[in-house]
Amino acid sequence: MNAKARLGLAAALILSSGLAQADWSANVGYASEYYYRGIFQKNTSANGGLDFEHGGFYAGTWAADVGDGLEVDGYFGYGGEYQDFGYSVGFTGYYYTGDFDDTYREINLGGSYNILAVDVAVGQYDNFAGPTQDYTFYSLTLEKNGLYGKYAGFSQDVDGEYFELGYGTSVVEIDLGVSLIFNDKDLSGTGSSDEAIIFSIGKSFDLQ
Fold this sequence. Notes:
The protein has one domain (3-206): Porin (Beta Barrel), CATH 2.40.160.40. 9% of the residues lie in helices and 68% in strands. The protein has helices at residues 3-16, 185-188, and strands spanning 23-36, 39-54, 57-65, 70-82, 85-96, 104-113, 116-125, 133-144, 147-156, 160-171, 174-183, 194-206.
């Protein structure tokens, strides 16, 4: 049994014990531009996902239109709180139905206190026929009442930094968001820094 299959089996065993009591939800959305971690993916992109959570354990899948097929993500992990501190640990895989990109797999670590959140992802990129690449992603986010600012970047075989400023709110149970992204030349892919303004709309559904 390969490592990927073992991870899937472990998640299934953990989650099956409380499946009947799990909280199921789904989501759909649309963005004027799809950026992920400061990197441009596609103009105008629809997306959707399915999640469930029970006792701090979570698992889900999410997909987005990237033009040449779909990006399909799968993830699972555990999150909780201790006094005023939040924490999480998990696994995420990014897979593609076309030739837009190759597979990424990573371990995710997160911590939060009050308005501050810190996230780290340590991963590996299959890189088509080339040598695999290792990367570390890090981010520092301040958020209050829907307004947030984020500084983030990459190290190891992938390099670059970006800053994101945004605001999100809900109107009649519809999620609305706007964000500004400023990335450096290493992430923009154009040889110079880049800026973007992104509008998004989404809806979440409880499936109980």
